[in-house]
Write a structure and sequence with these properties.
Layout lengths: L1 H32 L9 H11 L3 H11 L3 H12 L15 H11 L17 E3 L16 H8 L4 H4 L1 E3 L23 E2 L2 E2 L8 H7 L6 H11 L29 H19 L5 E4 L2 E4 L23 E3 L17 E3 H10 L2 H16 L8 H12 L6 H18 L1
Antiparallel strand pairs: 1-2, 3-4, 5-6, 7-8
Helix pairs in contact: 1-2, 1-3, 1-14, 2-3, 3-14, 4-5, 8-9, 9-10, 12-13, 12-14
Length: 407
């Protein structure tokens, strides 16, 4: 009887262990792929075996690497995660575009040597789809039809996206019969290259260069990639020598409002804004010029304010209270690409990516108890300049599943 009871307990324990491993596998797959496995596949069994083969987080990470191979990690989870970054209202109810495709492609390739994810903020790259046998769907900087067709045809973003140079003319058809269906423009002007990853993408141009004085471009760069709005950066001790002419120094007739409020954002913001001085949204595309766009110096409310004469910028937020963002390397430069490089080297960028991924796959914002994990993931992203986002997704998902089932 003792032997029978012991055998029953052992079998029950083994069954419970197996059931829990399978539950973990299902949970992990749903978080990373957003959909159940393809019917008839043995994905869940493979994940379950990986979990059982190695105890603790190692087994969970190995299982996550299986789940992340699903096309739906790219077609569903990543696509819907990135889309809100491409528009001012932060909605995912927009078509696939070059910003989203480039981010997805860069994440997919981030485990390859020499292709850190961080280059989406400064690299001369754009990810495009394949030839689809119809010149109406060529990649063109004056249209989003190419990407909308990829989405309409439900092509696998994991498989079809290829990297091209954003600055160059890009064709997706081998034979162009109609020149109007060709990509005939580029991002070169006056011997300079205006390509800056997603910062100079068509989608970003439509959203952030289409009106105003291009301040939106800097603001949404901070919001999307540093997890901070300008109000979070507010510091009235920053010198205001870069605040532009269109900012009144006595709003409402009271100069104290400027000194105690307006300058807190504008001093740092305008010191960086010159990076986008040569960009404009015109003729349904991003236009990059050799000179400063007129709108950068429009409507002077204060004639003694800063006159934008080039695309130079300086990070006046690198000292003082905002030094906590962990700025590294050169803190001044020219153009959007160099600004994107500076942003990507900050600890705030790495931490922001770690927090965003945590919120996505853990379905909650990280708390104080997760600070050590977020820091470790930020450090791992930066290690050897790899910025391997796939690894970040794997490790974060494993951590969330481990925490959930321990609780």
């Amino acid at each position: 009887k003792k032997i029978l009871i012991l055998s029953f307990i052992t079998l029950s324990f083994s069954s419970a262990f197996a059931n829990e491993s399978r539950l973990k596998a299902w949970d992990m797959h749903n978080r990373l792929a957003g959909v159940p496995p393809v019917p008839g596949s043995n994905t869940i069994s493979q994940m379950e075996n990986a979990i059982n083969a190695n105890a603790g987080v190692t087994g969970l990470e190995n299982a996550a690497r299986i789940a992340i191979q699903s096309r739906y990690f790219y077609d569903v989870v990543l696509k819907n995660w990135i889309k809100p970054m491409t528009n001012r209202v932060k909605t995912k109810k927009v078509p696939l575009n070059d910003f989203v495709a480039t981010m997805i492609g860069a994440i997919r390739d981030s485990d390859q040597v020499g292709k850190p994810f961080s280059r989406v903020l400064y690299g001369d790259l754009v990810y495009v789809g394949p030839s689809m046998g119809n010149q109406n769907f060529n990649f063109r900087r004056t249209s989003n039809d190419h990407y909308e067709e990829i989405e309409d045809r439900r092509l696998s973003l994991k498989d079809v996206l290829v990297e091209r140079m954003q600055s160059q003319v890009n064709n997706t058809e081998n034979s162009i019969q109609n020149a109007s269906r060709n990509d005939v423009v580029n991002l070169l002007a006056g011997g300079r290259n205006g390509a800056a990853g997603v910062l100079s993408s068509r989608a970003a141009g439509e959203a952030y260069f289409s009106a105003g004085t291009n301040r939106r471009a800097t603001r949404y760069l901070f919001m999307n990639f540093l997890c901070r709005d300008f109000e979070d950066m507010h510091d009235t001790t920053v010198p205001d020598f870069r605040v532009r002419k269109d900012v009144p120094r006595d709003p409402g007739g009271d100069s104290r409002v400027y000194k105690n409020s307006c300058v807190g954002c504008h001093a740092g913001q305008d010191s960086l804004g010159g990076a986008f001085a040569h960009y404009q949204w015109s003729n349904n595309r991003v236009s990059y010029s050799s000179g400063v766009q007129v709108k950068m110096n429009r409507d002077p409310s204060f004639s003694a304010g800063y006159q934008t004469t080039d695309d130079s910028w300086i990070n006046l937020w690198a000292t003082g209270q905002n030094a906590s963002l962990g700025w590294q390397g050169v803190q001044q430069g020219n153009g959007a690409s160099e600004l994107g490089m500076m942003i990507s080297k900050s600890r705030a960028f790495s931490s922001c990516m770690a927090k965003k991924v945590y919120k996505l796959v853990c379905i909650k914002s990280p708390g104080e108890e997760d600070e050590e994990f977020i820091t470790s993931m930020a450090e791992e992203l930066e290690q050897d300049n790899k910025y391997d986002m796939k690894n970040l997704f794997v490790k974060t998902t494993a951590k969330c599943i481990e925490d959930k089932y321990e609780d």
